[in-house]
């Protein structure tokens, strides 16, 4: 993975001291609350219902075992012993003290970590596929490009006061595990007719109160022009994006208002000035960054292992976990292990300090000391020899990290909701608990197959409810929590926005309503048909009839 | 108000003359050696024969509108109505790109924590509210001393340096 050089380190160190001084000036009354708000947000610090919340960046979801141990240390020392992984592959701490945040940042800096631009109206952490570099069908590893974007966007002088937040996702295979089509910019590595690799560029995707799927504005962008093109898009947005209404300030609104073609024309006109400037990437720079992401020294004898087959035969629990929570690796004899942060009871995405240490140790021992965080709030040990899987599984099980539910109904994406978030309309964590209790039976979940359930506690859509196969949105009705349900969304390569099933349901009805939805699916599905495909084929009517039947 | 030019505190010799209701603009704007006016008054002001001419704009004005004037302008002041309005950063960048080399001044809600970024985008002058100014402010430019991106005075990003 990428290692800081002296310049990277100096930037992060100086940023810590700058923030320390900003915090000091704020506490001394020299900096207005409004101005400090913008500055602290650009450093990942929110003030929430309970306490400040600090969001630490995990660039493109890749971290070392050493960094994970530091996160455990922060959770122990400054927080209540846990952290929360988000859909944008960062980690949030819910209970730090404002005065201590500069010290937390200083500790993070010792392991090449920071909280720069994890919030605020600036370019956020660039995300990617959590199987980048190891997926079988990949065209090219997207992570070097994420790192190039990370450097370009970090403390960018021109793009720190954008109309609104700005999120970029990059993918390197046809499968989209990064929800790239609902990002402000989605970049897909593609090959043109000449066999060259470049980027397909999408703009204007986003969720929140106006969900939109991004539109392709360029089918093929030569690699070396990546930064100049991003620069042109950002400049057009910075100059023309709306600033009068924060709900209309995202780039998606600008692209919709102008039309994708006009927007493209503006970008291309701006690009004329920047294309052949110093922003053009050099072959040396591309090679330098790629050099940090070369394949590991895989064990050529890994595929000769015979123990796995035997273990799969002997231990049914292990087999179930293997089938559900591991994925193919492009190198024979290796597997990708998904560490489930979706236990039976407990907030999705939460992890304790002890669990962080355990995962770090496993990474050191079995997976080249690297860990990935995923868009769906799990972790990945991406390169485990098949002979080691049994040992990994045993340790994960012991620490409640091996619930065999990946991509099933209970592998939910859930935002923190009312329990933590000051913007929430409704609670979410009680609902995820209720869903877990209702659908405890794993065999039933396996029969249902792949289902993505996403839940947000308000219209801001941090839990990506619009792109869940099943989406749940908390709404406030006269002080009570109600939940609106959508069906048919997808954040993957076949991206679509869910449609509202009908009137919202009370908190205690959510599990039984889900049960009816799933029963309808089982009645309607053809062999092997996924939940999403059934919904797309039959439409909402059968589901509506079942769910709202008693009302008539 | 305190003015910083090229990281030094200096005396401001420009005064903005804006149209006022009930007063004759031409009369008020006449006889200035250094005349600074809002963009809409540029044409009128140009005819008044001041020694030097400056213009004050907001993010609403596009670079193309300023291009025909550049050779006549000694000062372009870009206004930040609120610090969150980041359009001025891009406008400054564009003005330097089309070859404007005169004074580029940030006015309005200009605070310490944006000075470094503003300078890197091409501003060389900063008008600071009296109560917000202290000499210590001049340190703000170099709080972050290394950068990934190019800047107005050196367009090379890190990988070309
Ligand atoms: C608890 C404090 C949080 C606050 C105050 C907060 C605030 C917001 C707001 C206001 C938006 C809407 C932005 C817009 O529409 O322009 C938003 C969107 C979003 N947030 Fe959060 N959020 C929080 C936590 C989280 C968490 C825990 C996650 C991940 C699970 C997350 C991930 C996202 C994502 C993915 C979006 C959607 C971006 C889009 O519209 O394209 N946020 N957040
Ligand atoms: S969706 Fe709403 S409730 Fe959930 S974290 Fe985002 S802002 Fe808070």
Automatic annotation (TrEMBL), chain A:
Gene3D superfamilies: 3.90.480.20, Sulfite Reductase Hemoprotein, domain 1, Sulfite Reductase Hemoprotein,Domain 2
Alphabetical UniProt keywords: 4Fe-4S, Iron, Iron-sulfur, Metal-binding, Oxidoreductase
Tree of life domain: Bacteria
Record GO biological process: sulfate assimilation
Signal peptide: none
Domain Nitrite/Sulfite reductase ferredoxin-like: 47-109, 347-398
Names of the cofactor(s): siroheme; [4Fe-4S] cluster
UniProt keyword Aminoacyl-tRNA synthetase, yes or no: no
Domain Nitrite/sulphite reductase 4Fe-4S: 119-271, 408-547
GO MF annotation, one: metal ion binding
One term under GO cellular component: sulfite reductase complex (NADPH)
InterPro entries: NiRdtase/SiRdtase_haem-b_fer, Nit/Sulf_reduc_fer-like_dom_sf, NO2/SO3_Rdtase_4Fe4S_dom, NO2/SO3_Rdtase_4Fe4S_prot, NO2/SO3_Rdtase_4Fe4S_sf
Protein name: Nitrite/sulfite reductase
Provenance organism: Nitrincola tibetensis
Automatic annotation (TrEMBL), chain B:
Superkingdom field: Bacteria
Pfam families: DUF934
Record-given protein name: Oxidoreductase
Organism: Nitrincola tibetensis
